[in-house]
Amino acid sequence: MNQNWQLHISTDPKVMFGKPVVKGTRIPVELILEKIAHGESVEYLLQSYPRLTREDITACQFYALQSVKNDLVFAIA
Question: How far apart are CA 44 and CA 67, in angstroms?
């Protein structure tokens, strides 16, 4: 799945100001990640957003992983 998150996530300047969203929706990846971070279950998200699939939610997580994977952090002493 991590190779295929692009099948579920899109960006378009005309949709949500270009923020990454679940394809075919206006549901921002950021919203899904925030709800997961606050403890919402996948089942709750699927009920709350009927257009979402489990694969969409997983794709959001892999998108976030890919986004930070190559970040460099420099400690300031």
Answer: 25
pLDDT digits (tens, 9 = 90+) for 7-42: 999 999 999 999 999 999 999 999 999 999 999 999
In sequence order, which residues have a C-beta less than 8 Å from that of residue 50 and are 6 or more positions away? none
Distance CA 27, CA 59 (A): 13
Place of tokens 């959001």: 60
What residues have CB less than 8 Å from 32, skipping those under 6 apart?
22, 45, 52, 56, 57, 60
